[in-house]
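Troubleshooting: if your tokenizer reports a length mismatch, compare your output against this known-good record of 188 residues.
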Amino acid sequence: MGTKKPNIDAMNDFMLDSFDRTNRIHFLVGEIEEENIDRAVRWIVTENMKTDNSPLTLYINSEGGSLTNAFALIDIMRNSRLPIQTIGIGSILSAAFLIFASGTKGHRSIGKNTSIMSHQFSDEVTGKYHDIKACMKEQDYTNNRMIDVIRNASGLDYKTVKNKFLSTSDVYFTAEELVGYGIADRVF
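Known-good structure output:
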């Protein structure tokens, strides 16, 4: 009979999860999708039930993903009684850009070498005329939600946000530009 080898990946995940819970830190890495967002939402909700009032720190390194899931996390972040410090590292693209921007003002830091991109969202719509029309209405709502997130983060007006951040093609920014637009508070 062979000896069962320990699952090193599972042990590392357990240790990292324990570290995160102890130090009020969470790492949002990879695609913005249900499983990733569920972990972040649970973390914020759990930390808000504790008596400790110190800020939470959310490290973000993501190339984006589902806007629906991003909006779920953004709503939880906005309603957190605890300040949420967002730290952008590696890349904050698309939906991850919106999550980063939703950190508590004064507590949003970005690495000098972070790739930063914002753009219009894309979607495919098929079906009957009435279904397509209903989907177009939801797409208009989604576009307005994106504009509101960036406006709340920056204080910029509607037209500036639409033209600078949600233009017809991908828009890349430097960390310094993000500070200049009021979406980040400091570069490290």
